[in-house]
Amino acid sequence: MTHPSIYVEADWRGFDPWRIQPVRHRLMEHPALQLPALIELGKRLESSGGVRTHGSGATAGTSFNHAPKLHPNNQGAAATLADIEHAQAWMSLLNVQVDPPYRDLVDQVLDSLKPHIDAVDPGMSYRAGWIFVTSPGAVTPFHMDKEHNFILQMRGHKRLYVWDPHDTVAVSEPARDLFHRGHSRDLVQWREELRQRAQVFDLTPGMGAYMPSTSPHMVENGDEPSVTMSFTYYTRATRRDAQLHRTHEAMRRMGIAPPAVGRYPALDALTLAAARMYAGAKRAVRLRGSDSMASDSLPYAIPGRH
User: Fold this and answer.
1) Is 0.85 topped by the overall pTM?
2) How far apart are CA 107 and CA 56, in angstroms?
3) How would you list the strands of the sheet with 139-143, edge to edge?
4) Three-class SS state of 64
5) What domains sit in the chain, N to C, each tagged with a CATH number?
6) Cross-strand partners of 255
7) Rounded CA gap, 190 and 200, in Å?
8) Are 241 and 164 in contact, with CB atoms under 8 Å apart?
9) What's the rounded Cα separation, in Å, for the pair 289 and 113?
10) For residue range 153-190, what is the model confidence (pLDDT) as tens digits?
11) N or C: which terminus of the chain carries fewer CB neighbours within 10 A?
12) Euclidean distance between CA atoms 81 and 157, whole angstroms
């Protein structure tokens, strides 16, 4: 499933892995990203729980974690995708790298990006692909993810709102700590006034954005069906930050209020060293979440784990 026009254009000379930025791409015509192929992919993934969906009643303020239950889409993947224009649904095909042809696509794209990324943010791991197929007007609620993310628009138009990954007004430091501990987004709360703090991208086919790890974001689809694909990964830096956040959340449960990750690099280094010593010496009573540290460095994401 190769294609000669796979590539992503970005400002590689000024690339900063912790800065949101626009990108362009040439993946729109790739055969794997056309609706007939996505319908077949949806059928394959649905049998193993690899599809997430909610109805168009979800808003920016809907809990992202609970949107599928709060606003259920009762149609199956094939029926939703085949009539996405009228399905009134948001659908994500999860971890498409588990499907061999789509793993090839994920590798082709991330392999082409890796030399640029390695120069400033080495240690690419936990590669994954996510395909979003959305009805007109549907919304992706306000949330954040652990991975670095190249999000690329294939079909339709959507408005992407992204907040700086260190914006603690948009998402507080305790909320980030809790998120890294167990992927809880319970403290990630939408407020309408946050719009004015966001970077806004009006994405059309061939356009996209780079979103660093834990960049809060929200998406409003345009007036036609949309197909978008995200290529995601961890690096040495994201794994380090995740471990610090998990350790800080454990400290909060003990009544200690640590400073924000990154505010005091020397203290972060000491905290990280202590956490690793603790995990090594107390394997039977590891900090919650430390069992995921090894998986974070695997080549590909594991479905069902974060």
Assistant:
1) yes
2) 32
3) 139-143, 217-221, 158-162, 199-203
4) coil
5) 8-235 (2.60.120.650), 238-296 (no CATH)
6) none
7) 16
8) no
9) 29
10) 999 999 999 999 999 999 999 999 999 998 999 999 99
11) N
12) 17
